[in-house]
Amino acid sequence: MTRQQKIDVAVVGAGPSGLILSKLLAMTGASFRVFERNSDVGGIWDIDAPNSPMYESAHFISSRTLSGFPDFPMPDNYPDYPNHKQLLDYIRGFADAFNLRQHIQFNSDIIKAQQTEEGDWLLEFADGTTQQCGYLICANGVTWEPNLVTWPGEFNGEIRHSVTYRSANEFNGKRVLIVGAGNSGVDIACDASFAADQAYLSVRRGYHFMPKHIMGKPSDVFAKEGPQLPFKIQQTVFGWMLKAINGNMTRYGLPEPDHKVFETHPILNTQILHYLGHGDCIAKPDIDHLDGNDVVFIDGSREQIDLIITATGYQHSIPFLDDNTIDFKNGRPNLYLNLFSRKHTNLAVLGFIEFASAAYENFTRMAELIVADATTNKNAKLASLKKSHHPDLKGGKHYLKTKRNANYVNVDTYLKTLDQVKKDIGLKQTL
Which CATH code is given to the segment(s) 148-310? Predict the structure, then answer.
């Protein structure tokens, strides 16, 4: 094996999180390198990257106004909700504006990372080369490894996970069933509604569907500009508002939500209600079993289906680490502040967190703490906190007890906790 010269910090992944880390690391005196398995920056937003979950109709679900990188706003000519091509251009523009490509080693697929006897990390690449580093930051993303589901019975049609979906043309002449009502599942169901012979949407529970615009403004802008109400009052106000806008979900064939608004990740899509209301998409309950050409549902109904798309989410995995390197809880990494390994003082993760807010500014605030830990002398206070501090990052709020919500945080509570930790260890606030 060819071993490269040791560096202080290695970052895995040149998506938005990796680029944020690169920008901050470049402002320090540390030696570092970003390793990206694909040929360019962009992460999941590069629809041409192998295993990308992107599809042609995909748009950002947070607004252009609030979603940009700090010090690099999205272009004024972008729409309220940019599409995937615009997002990729924007992300690559960010890399170019801050000359970040010079820090990235492309086409570098890490297949294994393990600690040396000295406590450093040794990275092994697919081409047989290795790289030693003092601190490892995983920014490899959470939507690459599909969460696969199965049902009893035999099926004559095709079953695919949504990670393989690209274009509505794939639905032409078919009877299509979408399983799962997350944001991507509902988007794909909308595509099937106009492209397929008939579309169906299978859901286990009821959901709240948030419009992307309220009173002519993007929903997140409307919420930010309005009075900052206590969480329970927000739930009451927005719950009433959604009832007034959308009506009773059972009119569309959907079950009533079994939770209050904001108790799980919001679904920003009311277009699906249009298709359900016109019969272009038909709501169905959970699948019971498969039967040849048919899918049989738990209510006893059956439909002839040609193609099942399972929009059932992704595993939050770090495939190049051994299973016991990071502890997992409910299928999600169990990390301090959802950032730091509690077992290894020189291992951090960025991007493995869920919250109802735009990501890039918040990720930057998180990255500041990671970079400070990675590039300064070991902070005894932070090292102690990693082992002993277990704050309630949900802020006492109730969220659905699902695998998806295992790492869900109340963003206001989380950021206040993050700022307090920075203060406690003497790190200057910048955002």
Answer: 3.50.50.60
Candidates 264, 320, 314, 5; CA nearest to 139 is 320
Q: What is the pLDDT of residue 212?
A: 94
- Cα separation of 149 and 151, whole Å? 7
- Structure-token pair, residue 340: 């730091």
Asked if residues 10 and 4 have their Cβ atoms less than 8 Å apart, the reply is no
* Rounded (5°) CA angle 138-139-143: 120
DSSP structure string for 285-341: --EEEEEETEEEETTS-EEE-SEEEE---EE---TTB-TTTS-EETTEE--BTTTB-
256 within 8 A of 205, measured Cβ to Cβ: no
What is the tens place of the pLDDT at every residue in 24-71? 999 999 999 999 999 999 999 999 998 899 999 999 999 999 999 999
Do residues 203 and 283 touch, judged by C-beta distance below 8 A? yes
In this structure, are residues 59 and 84 in contact, taking their beta carbons and an 8 Å threshold? yes
The DSSP line for 245-291 is HH--GGGGTPPPBSS-TTSS--B---HHHHHHHHTSEEEE--EEEEE
What is the bridge-based pairing of β-strands 281-284 and 198-202?
Answer: parallel
The mean pLDDT of 258-269, rounded to a whole number, is: 87
pLDDT digits (tens, 9 = 90+) for 386-397: 999 999 999 888
Q: Write out pLDDT tens, residues 290-334.
A: 999 999 999 999 999 999 999 999 988 899 999 889 888 777 788
The structural domains of the chain, with segments of one domain joined by +, span 3-145+314-424, 148-310
CATH topology of domain 3-145+314-424: FAD/NAD(P)-binding domain (3.50.50)
